[in-house]
Amino acid sequence: xxxxxxxxxxxxxxxxxxxxxxxxxxxxxxxxQVFGEILGVWAAVVWQxxxxxxxxxxxxxxxxxxxxxxxxxxxxxxxxxxxxAALRLHLIETSxxxxxxxxxxxxxxxxxxxxxxxPEAPFILLANEFLDALxxxxxxxxxxxxxxxxxxDGKFVEQSARPxxxxxxxxxxxxxxxxxxxxxxxxxxxxxxxGHRLAAHPGAALFLDYGPEHSAPGDSLQAIRAGRPxxxxxxxxxxxxxxxxxxxxxxNTARDAGAIIHGPVPQGIFLAHLGLFQRTDxxxxxxxxxxxxxxxxxxxxxxEPNRMGRLFKAMALAGRDVPTPPGFE
Length: 329
Ligand code: SAH
Fold this sequence. Notes:
By secondary structure, this protein is an alpha/beta fold. The chain is built from 14 helices and 15 strands. 41% of the residues lie in helices and 25% in strands.
């Protein structure tokens, strides 16, 4: 019997070690090069907002194939060569397989298993679809009785939840007869660590991910196997497991540790504000008709509310003296 977060950690580690996740699902940087370019320009503006520190750490959490950062660095070199010269690239990645892919595209980087080993210094962090991959615990409340979900032989079993994590014990909950509550402890450890760093050094961290704006109870654990929704508990290591990001709890935790929070705002509004369509048009004009149409279609996919524009959100953590970062005004 394994607690759900331990099961999810083990299943995802095996999955990312043996599969090419990008055969099973497509992320924003893999949809359009303009996504990474925009985040690169965002980082360049934030670098100026924090006083152009040199050196500065440019960190990405969960870089996947390295596409976002490769596109971002190309844009940075063209719009902000001084930032390109000042930045030191640090990547947080646990999968040896993906590290190998990243090394080919980003040979200048230093790799870390978590944020803990990254030097204390001014930094800008980017993370797309990283938090949704972090393990969650699931608790069930029936009136005043709480249980926690464990996994055995591909099925959930419940055990009495004692001690109940303080976040749940201190919450005030509605009258629903039965409700599932999720808690990602690794996400909150990261929020706390970034909050402390932002209280001590100039910097900002940008997270793009999917989840509701306000914390809401409900079971959001999902699995994608071979491109299709699947049973999350069956055949661990053969499917990508994710859960909705609880932005509000992440934000509160980072704020308590010393960060200022901006957003979350819907991804579509964030990207449009930062010039997604203008950049895409400019690029499309230089391309053959078919490729131009594909570029415009991919920008729409990222931004339209009924596609990735609304469920996905952008949220930034920043230091107290940092002006509001681009896209959050
Ligand atoms: N940002 C990329 C990849 C998203 S998939 C993109 O948008 O395409 C999630 C990424 O996070 C993968 O690179 C995965 O290996 C990494 N990852 C998952 N859990 C992790 C953890 N606990 N620590 C570090 N990296 C992790």
